[in-house]
Amino acid sequence: MLEPNNNQELPPIPAKRYFTIGEVSELCDVKAHVLRYWEQEFNQLKPVKRRGNRRYYQRQDVIMVRQIKSLLYDQGFTIGGARQRLSGDTAKEDLNQSQQVIDLICSELEEVLEILKR
């Protein structure tokens, strides 16, 4: 799971459906060639490819890139260790926790929207 202090350093993920590799690079503070390498190393990271093999990442891909970055750079995992961590049961727990946080934020935003509509 992402450490809260590291998460604050990165810009928020905009409400878009698809992100280019350049946008993901900026959002996650990782070079594009590193993202392409991680795609080969981590099965969980699979951006959609369209015309001309252009990569389009979805929101969950951006979150996965941030998790991989945290594991490798902040927590000191090797690529193999990070791969194992992401494919294990702890990854499922982390994703469940992330989903719960996202659901909570969405409900709070809906409440704010209702207040603003009044």
In short:
By secondary structure, the protein is mainly alpha-helical.
Give the C-level CATH assignment: Mainly Alpha
Helices, by number, come to 6
Indicate the radius of gyration in whole angstroms.
Answer: 16 Å
Tell me the helix content. 55-70%
Q: What would you call the shape? A: globular
Strand content: 5-15%
Structural class category: mainly alpha
- Indicate the CATH architecture: Orthogonal Bundle
Order of helices and strands: HEHHEEHHH
Counting DSSP E segments of at least 2 residues, the number of strands comes to 3
Number of domains: 1
**Spatial sequence of strands, sheet with the most strands:** 1-3-2
The CATH topology, please? Multidrug-efflux Transporter Regulator, Chain: A, Domain 2
Could you tell me the mean pLDDT? 86
Largest sheet: 3 strands, antiparallel
How far is the N terminus from the C terminus? 37 Å
Low-confidence stretches: 1-6
Question: How would you characterize this protein structure?
Answer:
The chain has 118 residues and is mainly alpha-helical. The protein has a single domain, classed as Multidrug-efflux Transporter Regulator, Chain: A, Domain 2, CATH 1.10.1660.10. Helix content is 66%, strand content 8%. The protein has helices spanning 4-9, 21-28, 32-41, 59-74, 79-87, 89-117, and strands spanning 19-20, 48-50, 54-57. Strands 1-3-2 form a three-stranded antiparallel beta sheet. The protein starts with a helix and ends with a helix.
